[in-house]
Write a structure and sequence with these properties.
It is built from ten helices and no strands. By secondary structure, the chain is mostly helical. The longest helix is centred in the last third of the chain and has 27 residues.
Length: 252
Amino acid sequence: MFISNPWFYAAAIPAVIISGISKGGFGGGLGILSVPIMALVISPVQAAAILLPVLCLMDLFGLWAYRNQWDTVNLWNLIPGSLAGIGVGTLLFRYLTPELIKLLLGAIAIIFTLDYWSRGLRSNQESARKPSILWGSIAGIMAGLTSFIANAGAPPVTMYLLPQRLHRTTYVATTVLLFTLVNYVKLIPYGWLGLLHIDNLATSLLLMPVAVVGMLSGIWLHKQVSETVFYRICYLFLFVVGLKLIYDAVAN
């Protein structure tokens, strides 16, 4: 009824822990790692379906930990586009092959990593940007689409929010509320498309204790530890995984 392959859990457990720590403490950017890592063992579509209920559980902890600390203006800029992106993802789902999804995931992972590295080089030279309805809507559409396809909606939102130099708690709280809404809305089309069947849900249930550990660790680390080393290691890992996914997509 649930996945019994030990290699799946060897990939899924660290993927969920990294996702929880990133989501709970650092804005969720490294959550993009989860599906690519699991896609090394199972299909990207199944990985996304298994992760969605797990993420929904994480969101409840995040809402409580960061309640009333989000940026309302940015949320209003991001939410409409995110819902539209989910709709686009639902319409395109039947046309997306596993190879295409791997290629898209790999490209997103590499682009996000290169943007992170280049932003580190230029961050001291830029002034803080203001919220923008236009760029917020574009980021929202991309976030909704990539979140629907592979639970990888954080990169567009990160690229939109980070240049504003929000307080890190405000930044994390804003992403938590946004993706809580996105993830719970996604349950509807995922169910309609038949992705939330009993085998996937049973596997999700097995991973939920790991999700709680990751999320609570992230919430604690948000106040205790600098994310610099954590991000450097994970972004390097993300870049390597992105290259591997592109290679697998092209090789097949």
